[in-house]
Amino acid sequence: LKSILIPNGLVKDRTHKLAVDILSSVPNTKSLVVLCVLKGGYKFCSELVDAMERYICSCEINMSIKVEFIRLKSYHNVSSTGEVEVIGLSNLSHLTGKDILIVEDIIDTGKTMTKALELIKQYNPNSVQCASLLLKRTDKSCGYVPEFIGFSCPDEFVLGYGLDYNEFFRDFPHIGVINEEGIKQFAV
User: Is the pLDDT of residue 101 over 70?
Assistant: First the structure.
């Protein structure tokens, strides 16, 4: 690792704040479908849904949360391929008329999320919002900005807390930046 960018405790604190912000944005919703983008979003999504459930219980809010999963892949080593591979969208017709929250680990160029939104909107949901743990500051961005952002991060390859480098470092508890030695050692 080159450095730890965001320590685990800070990630958890921010995630709990996002949970409150998200629930405040959908005050009349009785049911929220959380669409977790795998694999990287699993840890953030789990923590976020737990925080939302605790808030719902403590405030006696009448709302249910249902979690669904999708995979979007656009990276090879440290580079975006420019192509978005979608896995798990075979039948999402049950999203029609629902309030959807897409939970993603990182918005890099924004192209992956733009593609996902296009696909999901074909099912005519009532609303679609996105929560991303990280938003990368990069000049390669297509301009997409999610409704809920945990942290802004520099244009470096980050990993940990669900984010990986070729399936390595996904369970590292903090968000860190990989160094050149790690990039070479774990390249495919």
Answer: yes
